[in-house]
Design goal:
By secondary structure, the protein is mainly beta. The radius of gyration is 17 Å and the shape is flat. It has 2 domains: 31 residues, no CATH class; 87 residues, no CATH class. The model has no long low-confidence stretch (mean pLDDT 88). 17% of the residues are buried. A hairpin with a 2-residue loop joins strand 2 and strand 3. Pfam families: YmaF (PF12788). It comes from Schinkia azotoformans LMG 9581. InterPro entries: YmaF. This is YmaF family protein.
Amino acid sequence: MEIPVTGFMISNNEDDPMHSHSLYIMSWDGKPVHVHHISGVTSFADGHHHKYVGTTAPALSGVPHTHQYFTFTSVNDGHRHEIRGVTGPDIPLPNGGHFHEFHGVTTVSGRTPHSHSYSGRTSR
């Protein structure tokens, strides 16, 4: 079974033999997709907090949906944490558009192993 997908790819570094590409999917099976931005500050733990910023994975537009997300926190106190999860369902806005709520706990890291909680709302 073939599913038509449209989009584009950007090379991040052609000179590096281990270079990577960013893939931007614009439609899936003829239906448009979209992403949201996430950002925030983790809880305070082990004497510090971390900032984070990222973009959700694409999801179909115009239907009930959630998004997966994955990013790293800022480096603080010599370490960073992974943030990953799935947003809640889309929450419609009165003038159109929508957002999603998200929350979770980071991976464990640090000289004194610990994690942080985080929560927020995606961009519209």
